[in-house]
Batch of 3 targets.
Target 1
Amino acid sequence: MDDVRVPKHVAIIMDGNGRWAKKRGLPRKMGHVEGCKVVERTVEDAARLGIKYLTVYAFSTENWKRSEEEVDALMQLFRYYTKRLLKIAGENNVRVKMIGERSRFAPDIIDGINKLETTTANNTRMTFVIAVNYGSRDEIRRSVTRMLADCQAGVISAAEVSEERISSYLDTAGIPDPDLLIRTSGEERLSNFLLWQLAYSEFYFTDVLWPDFRKEELVKAIEMYNSRERRYGDAKG
Ligand code: IPE
Ligand code: IPE
Ligand code: MG
């Protein structure tokens, strides 16, 4: 990893927990339990590598379609991890921020999220963004609703709707766009993740299932990122 540019913002679609469990004859829930341990390790690895922003997709607006049993198991894990992350974030000087629509969660989970965000707000080494009940189209819908309300109230005018202004209404306001997107488990689609923010990101797909994801795979993704030439529409070479 000498002489490589470390991307400032890495986003990850953590996929394959269910298949990992199935391969072992375990209930899907156990894949999520194992996946959470990998999240913990990845936060520490990313901070050590010098990544400034790490965003993970933990639960989509579409994931409510899963069985009650699986959704309940995921909620239990969020409940536990909002507490556990207080410790991890504190030890690693990491600021935690949640994106997505949190009002659908149980009140104690919402309290846990709020506490985690306020307690870690002044940490500076890395920002860890967790997308929960997140869907990019839902995020855009919510932003447009707020923007229209601000227009009506005279806070902004239609002429002021620039790309920057739109970004400032999204859940990711103030966070730079991801430089690198990683998706595990061999699927090659966005599944409603950061549609606006990923406009110019590099994509890295791997067959590794999320519970098997290790630092070596993260380093491989960063090395691939270094080998690519980002053009942003310009004509070079
Ligand atoms: C990703 O793993 C975790 C969540 C979506 C919550 P999956 O649960 O989607 O695992 P597969 O895709 O079924 O293997
Ligand atoms: C995307 O994975 C959502 C998360 C990783 C949280 P899914 O497994 O839900 O996506 P699809 O169903 O394969 O598109
Ligand atoms: Mg999946």
Note: The longest strand covers residues 94-99.
Target 2
Amino acid sequence: MSSFYLVLEKMYTSRYTEGSIKMRSEYYNERYRPQYHFSPEYGWMNDPNGLVYYDGEYHLFYQFYPLGIVHGPMHWGHAVSTDLLRWNHLPIAMYPDDVGFMFSGCVVVDEHNTSGFQHGKEKTLVAVFTQENNGRQVQSIAYSNDRGRTWEKYSGNPVLERPEFRDFRDPKVFWHSETEKWIMVLAVKDRVHFYNSPNLKEWEFTGEFGSSDGSHDGVWECPDLFEMMVDGDKNNKKWVLTVSINGKLSGMQYFIGKFDGNTFVNENPSEEVRWIDSGKDFYAAVSWSDIPAADGRRLWIGWMNCWPYAEKIPAGKWRGNMSIVRELVLSKIDGFGLKLVQKPVSELESIRKGEIISVRDVWYSALDNAISGLMLDTYEILLEIDMSKSNSDQLGFKLFRDEDGYVDVGVDVSKGKVFIDRRHIACHHKMEGFAERHEAGLIRKDGIIKLHIYVDRASLEMFVNEGENVFTELIFSESDSRSIEFYCTEGDAYIKSLTIYSLDSIWKCPEKA
Ligand code: FRU
């Protein structure tokens, strides 16, 4: 390792000790500081990396540049949690070296010691990641025999290089029991490649997918591939391939199909584009590896940001945060077919601090504006409207409301759409790409419509009808006093239920805990 990186490593290591939480009341309390989302204490963060569960801990590594708040020579930051919610910062896991900067990748538990790296009781965690050096991208590995606390880069790095490809990155690896091989899915410009390996060190190309499927509005990045049951039926399984797109547009799409250990076959028309999120700020999401079978969930987290403005959003001493952790489900939806559905993980219920309001079976008009004017910092709204009884034109919430504006979140009943409109916040007009309205068609237009909304200091996540549609949006309102308004235009709406909880911060000073 060059001396420059050795000096850096020393500097950071002396600054951080495991579990250190500063005893300051301003800790994680800045205006735009997410209260129940993960963000680094300082520095720049982008993609989640190396999501793995091992021995009671969920690991979250992430693209990290500690010396600034823009993308720089990337490192792997590191945090762990026992509940997917409260994160404990650990020292930087991996530094750039002579092979290159530390780009995105994954971590797996090498259960059967196929790599031969295990030399004690603990199973070995193996990281597989891209290293970037002056535009050249190669895949490398590193291993840890102490529960992810320290990492050794493999002396034979890189383990996979194909100089003919410039965009050649973001490996996601899993154990494929049918072929008894490790499988790597890798983003290669406008498609994904598949490689397999018996030992995580030697990789062989087996196939590719995507050059003429789905959206190509940008380069493909951060793929993931996993098998899912359809509506929990173990006799009906499909493979899901997810991929992020970075270009004119920044977003995530998915494909449903078959995977035989060598390559993926799309079951839907190749020109069909299936977006994962209807908002603008959900990117580079990948799923946790090695979740115990007894849990069985497919869990993932995304970077809550969007490359076109990622380096320009308001920032303090840090820039970037993650979404909440979500559970993925593959569901058959009447009138649509199979859909990748996202739900907030149930662990989030543990930060509900107080029930601010809870009403059932009432008309909007009878509520008498009981909600409007409520001032809450971070909160969760659950609304169920019975459309068969309602004749309203549009209903929803004006959130982040102050003298300068609001964010409009709701259902356009006449058009059968759900939307989030960021155009009414004054300072959004100063930021390119922010003053926009995002909408999605409602799949179920009559019957019950459910909105489940998470509001943090600078974001909104809305799950429509149990996650059939999800909106992930950053919101920057300049005022500190922000109220809620519940509205319904024309006619009336029948509220099956409406509950609002205020939410606790996950970043506690020890003396307040
Ligand atoms: C996605 C991405 C990856 C790359 C990483 C670099 O956001 O561009 O393709 O590995 O970020 O930080």
Note: The chain has two domains: 2-344, 352-512.
Target 3
Amino acid sequence: MALLYKADPTRGEIWKRVLADRAPDLEVRLWPEVGDPRDIRLLLAWEPPEDPIAAFPNLEMILSVSAGVDQFDFSRIPPEVPVVRMLDPNIVEGMVSYVAMAVLALHRDLPTYIDARAEGRWHQILNRPAAERRIGILGAGRLGSAVLAALAPFGFPLAVWARTPREMAGAEVFVGADGLDAFLARTDILVCLLPLTEETRGILGAATFSRLPEGASIVNVGRGGHLVTADLVAALDEGRLSAAILDVADAEPPPPDHPFWTHPRILLTPHIASHTRPETAVDAVLDAIRRHRAGETPIGLVSRDRGY
Ligand code: NDP
């Protein structure tokens, strides 16, 4: 019985060390040093091989090294092989500080001050009270709910949009396609923390932007596929949107002539909002393996129907 790690090789060495320390009985191999493929029962991966079962006939479980699983081709993974997404507390911590930074930067007009400074202009804007800046979070899952809690002390009116109803302290909850219009109409800063699925691909596009209040801004920390670049550029150029802070792109890095590099109303970061840290993620991985072996459902099991 062996676990194969197939992702960033530098972090692979850390995973190997951390797992050796915490689970000395678990044999860990680092891609591409697979050894006998029949030994591989557990795969800890960013992207599995194209046909994981052909590659590893005794594969029992796939653990994603990331919170999102949109990079997986589920048509190639049989339903009896569970896929578990990453539940590292470091991912939550990183996302909370990134989104707080982005929301506060937009709330306090940072993109405008960056432009003004470049032009040598001393340009003062009276600050808008937090109570008049409505924040809307697309997605109310593990990350959306942590971000919501972190933003609460600032006094912004908060709302979330999810697929299924729930109560959330301190936030208005909007649900499904029927709730989207009302959610967007009350949102000045829109944060995307959705998984990328067939239903959410392209959600940050012209139709959504036209339903936000004039001058709204967006933060995309979901996936590049959520955003339609041409629609964003058009909305920014028309002034319909005022600014965008983006951590993800369709192609990472975007090609040199991509507007994400040069548009004056876009701030781009290189997919660093949060990352998996083996030292803190190992607990979730070992818990998933333990539950799987005990015949229990691992926490973070991905639903094939929902796609997340
Ligand atoms: P969760 O699965 O915990 O939460 C997803 C949320 O999205 C849920 O509230 C879910 O609703 C909602 N949702 C999904 N589909 C729809 C839909 N069609 N309509 C309305 N709501 C929907 O995921 P996480 O919070 O852990 O992560 C979210 C995403 O963040 C990841 O999938 C990944 O893409 C991205 N991410 C980005 C990182 C970065 O560094 N930029 C790092 C980590 C994650 P419901 O609760 O009703 O199911």
Note: The chain has a mean pLDDT of 97.
